[in-house]
Write a structure and sequence with these properties.
The structure holds 2 protein chains of 2 kinds. In chain A, helix 2 (43-73) packs antiparallel against helix 3. The radius of gyration of chain A is 35 Å and the shape is elongated. Chain A is 74% helix and 0% strand. Chain A has a domain at 50-144. Chain A has 3 helices and no strands. Chain B is 34% helix and 25% strand. Chain B has 10 helices and 10 strands. In chain B, the strands form 2 sheets. Chain B has a 6-stranded mixed sheet, with helices on both faces. In chain B, helix 7 links the parallel strand 7 and strand 8. In chain B, helix 4 crosses helix 6 (152-164). Chain B is globular. The chains are: A mainly alpha, B alpha/beta.
């Protein structure tokens, strides 16, 4: 660590107001709100997005492969010469198309289904709370009805 | 000096969730894994002292909490929310403050200029200085002095003042006592106790346990990348030597 003793320093007057530490409960609530508002980007999100785009790219590549197979096969009338193009272009292209479509569907739906699941759980909990509250009310009424009357 | 004059913390789970929680944290530098499944829970308003010898993984644990090191597995939870992937500046702006090992002050800048660095949170320099000089009146006398020319204790005070000026809700302290005289360490931990009494949750990492155990509500011993024991400071005090020496 080096220090430069010739560094020019400006003489600054200190503040004169008195300081009062802020109310901690308010600060904690504010902190919780700020943490909840954080926009987080996790590596898992990147992977999902990359795989989804990979699926789209794979489908595009599959179309190119199929077209290449068609172009090759259309250059000959002999079935024996057309077969390699059919297999390497047509069948391979079809396989790539299916794989790409599977990736795209899987990862594009996962976010939607995740939200749907959370929403479903939330609504089930709300429903359970309502049922419990109703049962408590019924219990109170039954107890009142079965209480022995004073003479 | 006794620091045990704060109200006890009700850390029962059914009342308030922990402000900071680590669950199964593994972290590595490249291919070298240094944390092997760390679990830690810091109740709101409590002081947790994380103790252990050199190389135990204490600073790495603190860096995981502040977002400087991303865990390879496990979850970091702040205020009940999983915050894996949060950047250090996001957490700092929200109210997670780290006082690093070795102070980290700018030696070629004055005390006033070092404090000016903390106006990024939106406070004016007057507000920042107000907080700093309230906590550390000695800094007021040194406000126009270059930070590099101050003693180690004063630099540590400046480092803490910069952190506290951000009005943190969660304070992470890394080896406050490093290279300082015992009298200065006691003075600094008295201020830590004062901050804790105001309700700030504090995770403090230390090699030298005696002073910090007087301030802490909970303590944990860390060895070889794992927390091997958590308990009250009184319970752990007797086990420290054995833990450090591997008995």
């Amino acid at each position: 660590m080096t220090t430069d003793m010739n560094y020019p320093t400006e003489q600054v007057a200190p503040p004169t107001v008195s300081y009062v530490p802020p109310a901690t409960d308010e600060r904690i609530e504010q902190f919780r709100d700020e943490i909840n508002d954080l926009e987080l980007k996790t590596p898992a999100d990147d992977n999902e997005r990359n795989l989804m785009y990979g699926g789209i790219g794979l489908m595009g590549f599959a179309i190119v492969v199929i077209l290449a197979g068609y172009w090759g096969a259309s250059g000959s009338a002999i079935v024996g010469e057309q077969m390699p193009y059919l297999l390497s272009g047509g069948m391979l292209g079809l396989a790539l198309m299916i794989a790409g479509a599977a990736l795209f569907v899987r990862y594009s739906l996962s976010r939607y289904l995740r939200f749907w699941l959370v929403r479903d759980i939330y609504e089930q909990r709300t429903q359970t709370d309502r049922v419990v509250e109703s049962m408590n009310n019924v219990e109170v009424l039954l107890r009142a009805a079965t209480r022995p009357r004073s003479k | 000096m006794s620091f045990k004059h704060r109200p006890t913390v009700d850390a029962s789970p059914e009342t308030v969730p922990p402000l900071l929680e680590l669950k199964g944290i593994r972290a590595a530098y490249g291919r070298i894994e240094v944390l092997h499944g760390v679990d830690l829970s810091l109740p709101q308003g409590a002081v947790f002292a994380l103790l252990g010898p050199n190389g135990a993984g204490k600073t790495t644990t603190l860096n995981v909490c502040s977002g400087l090191v991303q865990p390879t597995s496990g979850g970091v939870y702040i205020a009940g929310r999983r915050i894996n992937g949060a950047t250090p500046d996001q957490l700092a702006r929200a109210g997670v403050c780290t006082i690093p090992e070795g102070r980290g002050v700018f030696p070629n800048l004055t005390v006033h200029e070092n404090l000016q660095m903390m106006t990024f949170v939106g406070s004016s320099i007057e507000q920042v200085e107000e907080v700093a000089y309230y906590r550390f009146p000695r800094l007021k006398e040194r406000r126009n002095q270059l930070a590099g020319t101050m003693s180690g204790g004063e630099q540590q005070m400046l480092s803490m003042a910069r952190g506290l000026a951000t009005n943190p809700a969660l304070l992470l302290l890394d080896e406050l006592s490093m290279g300082l005289a015992p009298l200065i360490v006691e003075e600094l931990y008295a201020i830590v106790a004062q901050i804790a009494a105001e309700g700030v949750s504090i995770l403090v990492v230390e090699q030298f346990a005696r002073t910090v155990l007087g301030v802490a509500d909970l303590a944990g011993i860390m060895l070889h990348g794992q927390i091997i024991r958590v308990g009250s400071p009184r319970d752990l005090e007797d086990e420290l030597s054995a833990a450090y020496l591997g008995a």
